[in-house]
């Protein structure tokens, strides 16, 4: 009976743990270590909880013969001092010795992340580069190597976290913080801001993609290239609108006159998995709705709404942007 | 009279001496590390200082705990329940509690010093 | 030295270890002999004494009821108000749970949601958890100690009214959609830059309440140290009193850093002094340090008192004395210390060096040891006795089940690398609710079931208790157990909404269902607590057959509390001294009467509880309400930029306090000695270290110095954290003026000490002269301090360096003004005969204040005059 229950529970547990943003579905070395650490600690915790509460239940309900005073004191010394000192000492040694590995310096690639309310500027600095490849709201990392991540924030404190790859680190204005991540398997994940950063804190996420080193190199080369010119009439109209509506004052589309640095870089917008820092799917309809009224999806966002544009104009703008792969 | 009561333990302050040493050790270890990392970016001075401070703290706590043990006088009468309204019980009670606090403080100091063994950089 | 020498009845009690006579003024026999205690009291005398006491302790009736200051009244208001605030904060939680029940919900706007979670946390912490401890302690501590009231009843009343005003102000803001919305931790720059009055409401409203909390803590500590019944040596104190001592001390060292932080924060918000602005040399991390130096001990400040309640319930449940009393004392004191070494574990992800995190990880694990000792001591007691299941024990058992789970997840999150994953996720939400429900809510409710017959002389319902328990317990686990998984699956805290694709929907739905089951349980409990019980019979006197003194009170209740103040010789007097109850009722113990119609309390020595005096304590008054109202004005008006009105309100508040002190404290007694009963005559006036008032000042100043130390920490923090501290071209405070002000503080202190000496020796005229000189020197020192920053033209809004220098000067300057006021109060007292060579409590307290002020004045002078030059 018990075994059958266990068999039923196991697959449930496995699916319950899986997910693009799950600590228990690791795809990075650090996350793997921490996930293992968690399972070990959980097992210990369950045993201890059962022991202590079993004891309480036993003494309050099953009403045994009163225990001698000496034995009671022994219980306090054993359970309260000796046992926890040994167990916690061991846990500390295990966990502390792991810390330097988790924070080891990266090799090769450095990714600089700047958090804004409520989006992420991402700069890729490959080894020896003199100029970064600029992107936004998506992090791509090569597998099998440890990449350095440098963190900074514009106005308020945020926290950078990709649960599947490793722990989080805060981004603090006026301070530079750092971390490093070592993905071990390729895949698509979701990261999110973990430090409360204002009205739309809930709407500040990002996509994370890990890929084999060769694929990553190819992607980075493509990302460094200027934007594709618009294809087709609608997109061309959209490109013109983009400039005439002043979008370029805040957004950059490399290879065009748009070179703003206030908002996210849109050069390869459509190659990203998500829109508006991980909250909308990268689809034309979503893009149109977003441009028309961003505050509907992200209250407190700095981007103004463009609801004065006609449907056709919005459609054209969206076509243009969706062509920026 | 002075021979029989080598230590004046009227006050409860004696009881908390060991954890006070723990807090001083903790605060100075933290401060030295923070300053060393902020000003030099390495832990060279800090690690030496942590070792020295830990040693000093352990010696101090050992002395305090030993005095508390004497004050408890367990081997004198084997009492560990001090619930009588007498000076003796009050004195031994404070010694007993001080001794236990000493033990916890030793564990605390050793725990706190441990990271210095495993972590050698300011990262 | 033999024990019989010091424990047998004798004249003039001695300091036991040195043989020095403790108090020459005490006359008569102490401790009392068995024969004296057996001597019956004449019934007519007994009736007369009871009548006197009843008159002295009469609770005001009609609308005057609200002028009462008695601990039984104030404690009741206090706890009901805290309970009401808890219900409000709970409603906020339910609304948030509705919002999160389904993905992409728009039941609440993001801004509302942010206001709600900010207020839920702030209210639960500041308006429920800490005040509840103080409320319950005010209500029951005097009874544990066989005392009639707290040592400073008007201070409790003042604290209560402040709490009520501040609490309504802070919580009321939610109705106007004007609440703070940057989280209960108020991290700058988000909170410093937030528009509107929200952050100011939080800072000023809660500072106001924190000060009231500190006042209550001071009173509780003094009550425990100085107002124990004769004979209750420190090894016989009820465990609750030990916890009060530890928690009071923790409040004293934990709240001031937050007050210092609030001070800097509000200076930045209203005057734009850039302490937390990185563009102008500030650092947002300073706030995090100050906040969490408060915030983590706070968790234990919430947890320990509830464990203290359990420590009272468990021996009664087991019908035997607690096992491992010394171990529990160790654990309370140990937790008190270690909890101050944990604060950075709230900052594990801020990028501090790993090794620093390691220290805090280690200390966070170390604190598990005393906590575990506590729990095993309880289990050992239950094992050594025979447990009778009753309402309170059920709640305590539930508390242990929940708390151990929270403690075990605590061990996990204390491991820094693991915390990097779960920090600020729902895993933490689950963990903290497990510790707080298990460590606070359940034991408190258990305690209410246990103490309800003591407070109201009625019992709560067994049936409703079971319903309330099982609903709350199951609801709690349904709500919070899944949250561990929600967090591990990546859901961050404080998100107003989440996408469907994240896969957190069913987990959140379960949690929401659970939260409503908890609410149902709490409602049943609230109904049981508040339902009218006038038709229910009174309980017997000691319904649980407990062993401690509170159960000796009369049924029906008498306002005097303890009929006479007993001589205690054991930890569980009602179990171990069978004749005690009869002797108590008969009035055979101390101060069984009120010959002058005054409320009185016994003052005893700190360690061995040798009686030292029987002093009058304050009675009903309206001035505490007025004082609280005006103090509230001084804190609340600045929120709306009404600075002058605030100043006026502050002046009125000070006037009220002076009136209250002048008319009711340290009065010259009619008779210097009082026949306290059992052949003992006690002085009716104490001053210096024997006096509760002196301890009150001493303890308050320890807290105040901690706040000052936090500011000093700020200076050193900037020095380590910022390369441009001080900036290369900035003007430095004037060194000569700083030296002058330091000298001025030292001289003013010297004059104050001299005044006290001369006054003691009967040279009142000379003493007045020195007091006058001290006032003049204090003014001079304050002026020099002001000029130290004004003459070189420091511009506090330009950079954190001049800002922190000016903040120090303002802080010490304000304390100087207070010091001068206290001296003037003594001068007036000397003039009008309130302060005489023999009755000099005011002057001794002022001198004590000046010891502290002199120290902080000199440190301020050094930090302003010398420190920047050393760095530059």
Automatic annotation (TrEMBL), chain A:
Gene Ontology cellular component annotations, sorted alphabetically: membrane
Record's keyword terms, sorted: Copper, Electron transport, Heme, Iron, Membrane, Metal-binding, Signal, Transmembrane, Transmembrane helix, Transport
Entry's Gene Ontology molecular function annotations: copper ion binding; cytochrome-c oxidase activity; heme binding
GO biological process, one term: ATP synthesis coupled electron transport
InterPro entries per record: CcO_II (IPR045187), CcO_II-like_C (IPR002429), Copper_CuA (IPR001505), Cupredoxin (IPR008972), Cyt_c-like_dom (IPR009056), Cyt_c-like_dom_sf (IPR036909)
Transmembrane segments: 37-59, 71-96
Protein name (Swiss-Prot/TrEMBL): Cytochrome B
UniProt source species: Roseovarius spongiae
Automatic annotation (TrEMBL), chain C:
Primary location group: membrane
Compartment(s): Cell membrane
Catalytic activity: 4 Fe(II)-[cytochrome c] + O2 + 8 H(+)(in) = 4 Fe(III)-[cytochrome c] + 2 H2O + 4 H(+)(out)
Domain Cytochrome oxidase subunit I profile: 51-581
Pathway: Energy metabolism; oxidative phosphorylation
EC numbers on record: 7.1.1.9
Gene Ontology cellular component terms for the protein in this record: plasma membrane
Chain coiled-coil ranges: none
Composition bias, Basic and acidic residues: 12-22
Transmembrane segments: 77-102, 122-145, 157-181, 201-222, 234-255, 299-318, 325-345, 357-381, 393-416, 436-455, 467-486, 506-527, 619-637, 643-662, 694-719, 739-758, 770-794, 800-827, 848-867
GO molecular function, one term: metal ion binding
Signal peptide: none
InterPro entries on file: Cyt_c_oxase-like_su1_dom (IPR023616), Cyt_c_oxase-like_su1_sf (IPR036927), Cyt_C_Oxase_1 (IPR000883), Cyt_c_Oxase_su1_BS (IPR023615), Cyt_c_oxidase_su1_bac (IPR014241), Cyt_c_oxidase_su3-like_sf (IPR035973), Cyt_c_oxidase_su3_a-hlx (IPR013833)
Membrane topology, from the record: Multi-pass membrane protein
Gene Ontology terms describing biological process: electron transport coupled proton transport; oxidative phosphorylation; respiratory electron transport chain
Stretches the record annotates as Disordered: 1-22
Keywords: Cell membrane, Copper, Electron transport, Heme, Iron, Membrane, Metal-binding, Oxidoreductase, Respiratory chain, Translocase, Transmembrane, Transmembrane helix, Transport
One Pfam family it belongs to: COX1
Keyword set includes Cell division: no
Record-stated family: Belongs to the heme-copper respiratory oxidase family.
Name of the molecule in the record: cytochrome-c oxidase
Lineage: Bacteria, Pseudomonadati, Pseudomonadota, Alphaproteobacteria, Rhodobacterales
């Amino acid at each position: 009976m018990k075994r059958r229950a266990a068999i039923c529970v196991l697959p449930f547990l496995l699916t319950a743990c899986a997910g693009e943003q799950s600590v228990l579905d690791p795809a990075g070395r650090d996350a793997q270590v921490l996930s293992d650490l968690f399972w070990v600690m959980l097992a210990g915790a369950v045993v201890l909880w059962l022991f202590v509460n079993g004891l309480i239940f036993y003494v309050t309900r099953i009403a045994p013969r009163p225990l001698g005073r000496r034995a009671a004191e022994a219980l306090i010394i054993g359970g309260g001092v000796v046992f926890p000192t040994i167990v916690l000492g061991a846990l500390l040694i295990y966990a502390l010795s792991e810390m330097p590995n988790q924070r080891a310096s990266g090799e090769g690639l450095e990714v600089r992340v700047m958090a804004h309310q409520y989006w992420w500027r991402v700069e890729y600095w490959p080894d020896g580069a003199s100029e970064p490849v600029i992107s936004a709201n998506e992090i791509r990392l090569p597998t099998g190597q440890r990449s350095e991540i440098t963190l900074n924030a514009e106005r308020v404190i945020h926290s950078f976290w990709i649960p599947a790859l490793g722990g989080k680190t805060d981004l603090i204005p006026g301070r530079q913080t750092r971390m490093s991540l070592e993905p071990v398997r390729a895949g698509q994940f979701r990261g999110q801001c973990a430090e409360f950063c204002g009205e739309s804190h809930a709407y500040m996420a990002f996509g994370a993609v890990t890929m084999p080193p060769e694929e990553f190199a190819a992607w980075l080369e493509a990302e460094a290239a200027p934007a594709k010119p618009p294809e087709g009439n609608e997109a061309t109209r959209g490109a013109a609108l983009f400039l005439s509506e002043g979008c370029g004052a805040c957004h950059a589309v490399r290879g065009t006159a748009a070179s703003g640095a206030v908002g996210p870089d849109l050069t390869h917008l459509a190659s990203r998995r998500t829109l508006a820092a991980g909250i909308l799917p990268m689809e034309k309809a979503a893009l149109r709705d977003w441009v028309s009224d961003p505050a509907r999806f992200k209250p407190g966002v700095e981007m103004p709404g463009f609801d004065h544009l006609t449907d056709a104009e919005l459609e054209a703008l969206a076509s243009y942007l969706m062509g920026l792969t | 009279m002075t021979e029989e009561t080598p230590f004046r333990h009227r006050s409860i302050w004696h009881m908390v001496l060991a954890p006070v040493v723990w807090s001083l050790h903790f605060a100075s270890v933290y401060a030295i590390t923070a300053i060393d990392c902020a000003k030099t970016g390495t832990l060279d001075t800090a690690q030496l200082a942590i070792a020295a401070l830990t040693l000093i703290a352990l010696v101090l706590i050992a002395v305090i705990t030993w005095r508390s043990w004497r004050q408890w006088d367990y081997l004198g009468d084997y009492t560990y329940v001090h619930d009588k309204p007498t000076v003796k019980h009050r004195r031994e009670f404070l010694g007993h509690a001080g001794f236990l606090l000493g033990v916890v403080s030793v564990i605390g100091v050793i725990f706190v010093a441990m990271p210095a063994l495993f972590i050698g950089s300011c990262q | 030295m033999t024990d019989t020498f010091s424990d047998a009845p004798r004249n003039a009690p001695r300091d036991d270890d040195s043989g020095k006579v403790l108090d020459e003024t005490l006359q008569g026999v102490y401790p009392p002999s068995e024969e004296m205690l057996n001597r019956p009291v004449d019934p007519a005398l007994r009736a007369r004494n009871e009548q006197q006491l009843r008159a002295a302790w009469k609770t005001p009736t009609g609308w005057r009821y609200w002028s009462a200051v008695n601990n039984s009244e104030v404690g009741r208001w206090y706890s009901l108000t805290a309970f009401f605030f808890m219900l409000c904060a709970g409603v906020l939680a339910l609304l948030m749970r509705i919002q999160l029940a389904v993905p992409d919900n728009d039941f609440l706007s993001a801004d509302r949601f942010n206001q709600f979670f900010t207020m839920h946390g702030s209210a639960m912490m500041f308006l429920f958890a800490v005040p509840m401890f103080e409320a319950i302690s005010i209500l029951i501590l005097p009874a544990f100690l066989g005392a009639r009231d707290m040592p400073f009843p008007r201070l409790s009343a003042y604290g209560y009214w402040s709490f009520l005003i501040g609490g309504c102000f802070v919580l009321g803001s939610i109705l106007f959609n004007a609440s703070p919305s940057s989280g209960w931790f108020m991290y700058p720059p988000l909170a410093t830059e937030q528009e509107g009055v929200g952050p100011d409401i939080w800072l000023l409203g809660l500072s106001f309440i924190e000060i009231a909390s500190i006042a209550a803590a001071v009173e509780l500590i003094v009550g425990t140290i100085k107002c124990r019944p004769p004979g209750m040596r420190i090894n016989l104190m009820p465990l609750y009193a030990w916890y009060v001592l530890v928690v009071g001390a923790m409040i004293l060292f934990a709240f001031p850093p937050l007050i210092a932080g609030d001070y800097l924060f509000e200076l930045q918000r209203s005057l734009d002094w850039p302490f937390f602005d990185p563009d102008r040399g500030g650092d947002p991390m300073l706030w995090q340090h100050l906040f969490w130096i408060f915030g983590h001990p706070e968790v234990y400040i919430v947890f320990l008192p509830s464990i203290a309640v359990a420590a009272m319930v468990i021996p009664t449940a087991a019908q035997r004395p607690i096992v491992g009393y010394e171990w529990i004392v160790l654990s309370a004191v140990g937790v008190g210390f270690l909890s101050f070494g944990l604060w950075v574990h709230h900052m594990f992800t801020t990028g501090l060096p790993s090794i620093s995190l390691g220290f805090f990880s280690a200390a966070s694990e170390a604190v598990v040891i005393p906590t575990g000792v506590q729990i095993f001591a309880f289990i050992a007691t239950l094992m050594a006795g025979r447990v009778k299941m009753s309402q309170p024990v059920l709640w305590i058992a539930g508390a242990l089940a929940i708390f151990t789970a929270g403690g075990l997840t605590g061990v996990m999150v204390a491991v820094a690398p693991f915390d990097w994953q779960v920090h600020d996720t729902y895993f933490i939400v689950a963990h903290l609710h497990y510790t707080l429900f298990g460590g606070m809510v359940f034991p408190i409710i258990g305690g209410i079931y246990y103490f309800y017959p003591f407070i109201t002389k009625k019992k709560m319902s067994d049936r409703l208790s079971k319903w309330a328990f099982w609903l709350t317990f199951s609801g709690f686990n349904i709500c919070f157990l899944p949250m561990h998984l929600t967090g591990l699956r990546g859901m961050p805290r404080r998100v107003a909404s989440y996408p469907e694709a994240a896969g957190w929907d069913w987990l959140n739905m379960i949690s929401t269902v659970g939260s409503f089951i908890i609410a149902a349980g709490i409602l049943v409990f609230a109904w049981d607590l508040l339902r009218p019980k006038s038709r229910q019979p009174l309980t017997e006197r000691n319904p649980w057959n407990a062993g401690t003194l509170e159960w000796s009170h009369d049924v029906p209740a008498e306002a005097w509390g303890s009929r006479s103040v007993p001589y205690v010789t054991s930890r569980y007097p009602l179990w171990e001294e069978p004749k005690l109850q009869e002797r108590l009722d008969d009035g055979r113990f101390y101060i069984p009467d009120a010959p002058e119609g005054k409320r009185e309390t016994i003052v005893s020595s700190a360690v061995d509880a040798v009686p030292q005096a029987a002093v009058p304590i304050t009675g009903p008054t309206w001035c505490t309400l007025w004082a609280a109202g005006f103090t509230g004005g001084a804190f609340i008006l600045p929120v709306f930029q009404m600075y002058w009105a605030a100043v006026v309100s502050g002046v009125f508040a000070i006037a009220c306090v002076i009136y209250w002190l002048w008319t009711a404290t340290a009065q010259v007694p009619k008779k210097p000695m009082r026949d306290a009963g059992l052949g003992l005559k006690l002085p009716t006036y104490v001053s210096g270290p024997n006096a509760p008032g002196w301890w009150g000042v001493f303890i308050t100043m320890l807290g105040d110095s901690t706040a000052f130390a936090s500011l000093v920490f700020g200076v050193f923090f900037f020095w380590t954290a910022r390369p441009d501290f001080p900036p290369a071209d900035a003007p430095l405070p004037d060194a000569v003026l700083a030296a002058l002000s330091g000298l001025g503080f030292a001289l003013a202190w010297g004059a104050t000490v001299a005044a006290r000496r001369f006054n003691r020796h009967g040279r009142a005229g000379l003493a007045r002269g020195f007091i006058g000189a001290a006032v003049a020197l204090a003014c001079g020192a304050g002026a020099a301090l002001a000029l130290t920053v004004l003459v070189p033209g420091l511009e506090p809004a330009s950079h954190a360096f001049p800002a922190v220098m000016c903040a120090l000067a303002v802080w010490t300057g304000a304390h100087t003004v207070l010091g001068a006021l206290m001296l003037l109060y003594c001068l007036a007292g000397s003039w009008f005969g309130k302060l005489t060579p023999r009755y000099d409590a005011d002057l001794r307290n002022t001198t004590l204040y000046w010891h502290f002020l002199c120290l902080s004045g000199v440190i301020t002078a050094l930090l302003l005059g010398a420190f920047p030059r050393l760095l530059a």
